[in-house]
Specification:
The chain is an alpha+beta fold. It has helices spanning 39-48, 54-65, 69-85, and strands at residues 2-5, 10-16, 22-28, 34-37. It is globular, with a radius of gyration of 13 Å.
Length: 92
C-alpha cells in the first residue's frame, strides 16, 4: 500500500486488490469523503501532479490511452469537475 499527500488535507492511497489489480482511493482529511477512483480517473489524478495546465493534462492522458486530445478532453474535464466538487482539488 502506498500513500501520497496531495495537499494539507488530501491523501491518496493505492493498494493491490485480491486479484492483483490496483485499487486507488483519495480522501479529504479528516472527515472525507473517501473517493474510489477507477482506472481512467486514477490515471487523471496521478497525472495532475505531473502537469501544469489542463491542456497539458489532456495531452498526457491522451498519450497514455493512445488517443487524441479531442477524444479525451471531455472525460478529463468531467473528472476535474468531479474532483473539485468533492473537495479533492481547489481552483488555483
Amino acid at each position: 500500500m502506498t500513500f501520497q499527500h496531495k495537499g494539507d488535507n488530501v491523501v491518496a492511497i493505492e493498494r493491490l486488490g485480491a486479484r492483483g489489480e490496483s485499487r486507488f482511493y483519495v480522501a479529504v482529511l479528516p472527515d472525507g469523503p473517501l473517493v474510489v477512483l477507477e482506472e481512467a480517473s486514477a490515471l487523471i489524478w496521478l497525472r495532475l501532479a505531473e502537469t501544469s495546465s489542463e491542456d497539458e493534462l489532456i495531452a498526457a492522458v491522451a498519450e497514455d490511452f493512445g488517443l487524441t486530445s479531442a477524444d479525451v478532453a471531455e472525460g478529463v474535464q468531467a473528472a476535474l469537475e468531479s474532483f473539485a466538487q468533492t473537495g479533492l482539488t481547489q481552483p488555483s
